What we know:
Elements (H helix, E strand, L loop, with lengths): L1 H15 L1 H33 L2 E2 L7 E2 L3 H8 L2 H34 L3 H12 L6 H11 L7 H8 L16 H11 L4 H11 L3 H9 L5 H12 L1 H16 L3 H7 L12 H11 L3 H26 L4
Antiparallel strand pairs: 1-2
Amino acid sequence: MFGKIKLTDLKQKFKNGSFKDALAVFLLLLPYSVLFSLFIAIPVALAITLSFTYFNLIQFPEYKGLLNYVTIITQDSVFLRYVLPNTLKYALIVGPGGYILSFILAWMLAQIQKTPRTILALIIYSPSMVGGVFTGVVWRTLFSGDSQGYLNGLLIKWGLIDRPIQFLQSPDYLMTIMIIVSLWSSMGIGFLAMLAGILNVNEELYEAAYIDGLKNKFQEIVHITVPSMKPQMLFGAVMSIVGTFNSGGIGVALSGSNPTPQYSGQVIINHIEDFGFIRYEMGYAAAVSVVLLFIIWGFSKLAYALFSERD
C-alpha cells in the first residue's frame, strides 16, 4: 500500500509538471554545483583538513591536531609582528580607499555623455586586467633604485638628492608604494558594478526628491543614489575585500623577493606562499590560509551588515 501511494504521488507530480520543473532546475544547477565543488568546496575542505597535519609534499600527511594553529599564535613571531599588522594596514587603506574611489569615479562618469564615459571607463578599468606581475614591472621602472629609475632620475636632476634611493628595498617606502600601486589598479569589476548601478537609478526618484526639497548633489547621493543601488554597493564591497586580501603578490613583484625586505611588505598571502611553495610546509601554510579565510569571512559579514537589504 505504501509503495502504491508513493508511485501514485510520483505519477501525479509528473502529471502536474512539478517533476519536470524540478528536473529542469536540477539540470540548470548541475554545472554550477560541479564547478563549485571542484574549485571551491573540495579545495577549502582539503585545506582545512591539511591544516591539522604536517605535510612536506614527500611524506604522507601526519596528523598534528591544533599544533599549527598554536604555532601561529605563540611561536610565529614573523606572522604576529609583521604579517598580520601589514595585512590589516594594507587592507584597511586599500580596501575602503579603493571602494570609495571606485564609487566617486563611477558617479563622476555617470554625469557625462555615453561615448566619453565608455572610453574613460575602459581606461580606468584596464589596470585591473593586466595582473599584479605586469603592474609590478611597470612600477618597478618608475621606482627603480638606480639613476635609470624615472623618479630617482627626476630627483637627481632637480638636485633634491645626490644618490638614488632604494625605494623598493627600503622598509620606509615599500608598503607606501604597494598601497599606491594597489589603489591605482583597484578599479575592477566592483567599479563597473557601481557604474551600472548608478546609471540604472530611476530618474523620476531624483525629480520627486528635488520637488520635496532636495537641495544639492551630496543629498542626492546620500538619500537617492546609494539607497537605490545597495546590491551593487554590496557586490563592490565584497569584491574589494576579497581582492585586497589576495593582492599581496604586488609586494613580491615590486621588491623581487619573498619574503619582502625586512618583511616590510609581507602580507598573509606572501606568508602562505613562503611556507607552502618555498619551504614546502604545506600543513602550516594551509593553517595560515584558513586564518585568512576567516578574516575575509569576517569582513564580508560586516559588508553584508552595512549594505544588505533589511526587508
